[in-house]
Specification:
Two copies of one chain form a homodimer. Chain A is an alpha/beta fold. Chain A contains nine helices and 15 strands. Chain A has helices at about 55-60, 135-150, 165-175, 190-195, 210-220, 230-240, 270-275, 295-305, 325-330, and strands spanning about 5-10, 25-30, 40-50, 75-85, 95-105, 110, 115-120, 155-160, 180-185, 200-205, 225-230, 240-250, 280-285, 315-320, 340-344.
Amino acid sequence: MTPQITRISLKDYVPKGHATLSDFVIEQVPTPTKDQLKDGQIILHPLYLSVDPYQRGRLSGAKGSYVESYVKGDTITNFLVGKVTASASKDLQEGDFVLDNHGKWQTEYIVDAKDVSKAPKLDGISPEDFVGVLSMPAFTAYYGAVVLAKPKAGETILVSSASGAVGQMVVQLAKAKGLRVVGVAGSDDKVEYVKRIGADAAFNYKTCGNFVDAIKQAAPQGIDIYFDNVGGEFLDAALANIKDHARIVICGAISQYNISSPEEAYAIKNLTNILIRKASITGFIILEHFNTPDHENFVKEVTKLHKEGKIKYRTTETKGLENAPQALLDLFSGKNFGKSIVKA
Amino acid sequence: MTPQITRISLKDYVPKGHATLSDFVIEQVPTPTKDQLKDGQIILHPLYLSVDPYQRGRLSGAKGSYVESYVKGDTITNFLVGKVTASASKDLQEGDFVLDNHGKWQTEYIVDAKDVSKAPKLDGISPEDFVGVLSMPAFTAYYGAVVLAKPKAGETILVSSASGAVGQMVVQLAKAKGLRVVGVAGSDDKVEYVKRIGADAAFNYKTCGNFVDAIKQAAPQGIDIYFDNVGGEFLDAALANIKDHARIVICGAISQYNISSPEEAYAIKNLTNILIRKASITGFIILEHFNTPDHENFVKEVTKLHKEGKIKYRTTETKGLENAPQALLDLFSGKNFGKSIVKA
């Protein structure tokens, strides 16, 4: 009998509301074998999966959204770090560590070597750092807070989901750039953590009362940069607190992910402040910025800061590929702390 | 008896709603005389006043808005072109044409020569062109549509208030840059005018029905650039129609000018599209961009296009300084057509 491996796929689309475990299929399938490899292909064994909020949108089946939906029945994919277990490619050898932006949630899978990249060997960096301190959310933080927002020392930055995968990196990068940092998180524990990694002020949005006032209290002079991870009402409150020439960068709208129509979305009242304050709002998706000089600068700069101890990166690790769907669902219950990864 | 001249001042603040003629004082005051001039001063006689929508905000008495409010009792000020009638300055002579960003709505007034600038003598350009084809609204159009939006030939631009002082220039600049232009205006006459100056498609927002559908019909492939002159519901509809990497520039929010609190403002439902479409919204106020290379480029580029006949600029001229308040009020009734100027 062929040895069996685990494969995780989407059972059916979840256009709105919260997804549940029953929306996934976790099944045993035959393991791929070396004789199935075509020229240039490898068998990849995932070691660490990245689990990210933007994947919620990919469960919806919606077309024309900012990332493509998963296809019903297909294996779930996302960024992962894996190890080559067999190779018919001259570029990769058994034992190599590789990065796969579209890695499969399957114990072993066949992929073209040209569609993955060898993990750079960097002094003081291990393969799992590519789902950690050098992961996609970490790059998201860098791209938004550094490349787009062009921070100047002495400015004030507000960060929502500040203990999250993106937020904790924003907090630390902003401190390294000499900014005053105000972090927002969803529990007192997270608020403590945000302060511990360097935020000058932080508050719990679940207990702070009126958002506009809470921001004003934490940043009486106003906000130069708002790194938005939540959208909706909190974004509106931030808009009410921006200074002249403020930059708002939007890398996610987690509070809006489970909403399918504009009618259900929170409506923004303070957008006119963009005019009044000569400010800007810029949305971006990080997948478009890999393989650019910005990504090279990110790896260089963050590796250096990490080695100097100026950046720490907290992860929540779930063990076992079969538990990856639960890890994804946990992102939306507010249980996770830092970047979510699965040790496969 | 001292000869008398006309002076227009603000009677009282108009924090919200529509202003009326009774909010202004039009009175006769003594004419300034040459012997009142201190060293470096001139007497300026306004020839052409610029009348602009942003002045509505300056009637409010509100502090911390994007332009300073007028002060109750003080003479109304705005950009104008005038002629020197007396000079105690070595830099300006009687008969010189000058530009004054803060010119007074008064038949003659004393001003420091250093606070005004001599009108550049340009081939084919007359002094009144500085309230016309080279006016502040024209520069606004250039700054938003060219400097900020960075248009690429073949892209589609949507322009609201397309027959207005800013909009008509946006339409023509965009055509000169090889864009497909969709103009929106508030009457069938204006729509015809917008088409005549080059828009590929145009519609009347008062009769088009649902805004989202009307934009979709005029731009089935979506919008790359939206030059927003109105804010509110139309901005929301534009957000629903943006393409990937769209740029929205906001130079005004005329539909929101008479609103004093966010609670009364139209709430925006489609802001999440900024993330989904990796787009941006940027607000600006043109007063910050005079005396910059951008302004020099504007004067050069637009003068050239004007001489080549590629840009025409329609104005609505009101005669008589004393009629300037009515010209300002007419901006908000939708009666005006093109840039509003007063021949003083």
